[in-house]
Structure formats: C-alpha cells, structure tokens
Amino acid sequence: MLFRLPALVLLVLATFLPSVGFAQETADVFILSGQSNMAGSGRKDQVPQHWQEAVPNVHYWDGKSFVPFDPMQLNLNGKDRFGPELGFIHTLGTLYPDQTFYVVKFALSGQPLHAGFHGGKWMGEEPGPNRNTFYPGQSADDPNMGNHYKRLHDQFSAALAALTESGKTPKLRGIAWMQGEADAKQEVSANNYDQSIALLKRRIEEDCASTPVPFVMGEVLPHEPALERYTQRSEIRQAQQDADMRSGSSRAISGVWNVPTDGLSLLADTVHYDTKGQLMLGTSFALGVLEAENMLKMLADKANSGK
C-alpha cells in the first residue's frame, strides 16, 4: 500500500484530465528513453503487490513485438530491475482502463545527448560522424546523427511498423525522457541542454510522422551536493527548468514539461533512484504527459478562438 495511488487521487485526476481523450481508432504510442535512470535501478523484489500486477490494456515493446505488460515477467532492465515504465504504465492504465496503449522503451546507461560527446569523451562543440550519443541530427539524412539515436530510431520504427502491419494506425502521444547526467559534465552541453531537448523532440516527432506531442523530462541530479564529476549541475537543471512550457522563460519550449525530482528517494550513490523513487518518477511522467497535452489543447483552442 505504500506506493499505491489512493482511489480518491485517481478519481480527482480522472475528473480533470480526461478532456485530453485518446482516439481508439488509432494505436496510442508512448516512447520512453534516456540513460541509466530510464533503464532503472528499481528492484522487483521490493515492489508492493499492487505494482506487481499485470496491466492488460497496455502493451510493451519487447524488441520484437508488443506483448501484454506483466512487470514481473518482462525483462525491463535485466530480469530483476525496472525503471520508470512501471509507474508510468500503471498510472496510465489505471486512469484509462477502457483504452489501449503501446509503450516503447530504449535506454543506455551513462550516455550523452549533445553532439560534442563520443560516449564519455568530449570531442568539441561541433558535431561529428559515428559518435556514441543520442544526438538526433538536424534531419533524417544528417551524417552526424549519433549512434544511440539510430538505435532508438530502429526500436520505435520497428514498433510502429508492427502496429501498421497488424492493421492499426500508430499515433505518437507522448515522449518521456530521463537523461542529462552525462551532459552535466561539460559547460557547453549543460548550458545548451534546452536546445538539445528542442531538437530531440522535433526529430522524434518528424521520424514518427507526428504532430507536436508532450515531451516530459525528469530534472537530473536532485541530490546536493552533487558528485564532483557533475561540474555543471546547476546549469543543466536551470536549462531544464527554463525549457518547461510553463516557465515564462525565453527558452521555454512548447510541449516540454519538466518533472521535478527533488525529494524522490535515491540509492546510496545519490544519483540513481531506488524502488520507491522509480515508481514515483514513472507516475510523475504519466501525469506530466496528460497535463501537458491538456495544456497544449487549451492553448490551441484559445488560439483558434482568436482570443
């Protein structure tokens, strides 16, 4: 019961959030990606009974096909570990039990987003080919597209193709991103993280042939003081906060929703979330996607009304 969403909370959320709606003639897809905190350090042997239950209306991409989401049977991060997908899927499935969703997760521990990296090595600010980074390139044919983004692209492209082949029309409904620790090690990548996020959001949408969708990201490195290697902790967290569509900053990005992580429980390394922290993070991601989509809809309605 410790981590279970109270029935009253779910009732209140369902009252305010369902105006977003999900069209069931399409296959509603969510992409979850990032580095180690997306891969996950939650332990299945510590998960309370409620969270162990299968979620029949959510299907999870196992790398080859979509399968019913059964968290105790699926390989989420090895046999015994899980990431924020567990809280994300349980929350979404509970709020909308009569609708079907499809989730694709791809994560690589310790890996950067900015084009200047090649794995853990900083190569300089300018992009270069064949680097181990999530840098998505400026276009689909950009020769400097990072190797990690290519692998992410392969996963969600195969998942969308499988849905199409099954007679469904896939539609991207949201992106959850948990990454940034690697980018907090360099001044350029940290200060320009909002720009990296804007590009990543745009490129995933383009590669999914999607209209703009909510992009929720977890604020990195909540523990203070941070470990010495994270020299730009303050800068990257500020960039994340400014990128939030609600921030009022000139760096705000439409559809981007920053999820605060201060107070989420961590492992002893002070970087990775423990079992409870992962469940809370995933729940926050799910609610953030719904809230961001609701806000985007209200802004669009306001613009269309001429107000």
Automatic annotation (TrEMBL):
Residues 1-23 form the signal peptide. SUPFAM superfamilies: SGNH hydrolase. Coiled coil: none annotated. Keywords: Hydrolase, Signal. InterPro entries: Carb_Esterase_6, SASA, SGNH_hydro_sf. One of its GO terms (molecular function) is hydrolase activity, acting on ester bonds. Residues 27-287 form the Sialate O-acetylesterase domain. Pfam families: SASA. This is Sialate O-acetylesterase domain-containing protein. It comes from Blastopirellula marina. The lineage of its organism: Bacteria, Pseudomonadati, Planctomycetota, Planctomycetia, Pirellulales.
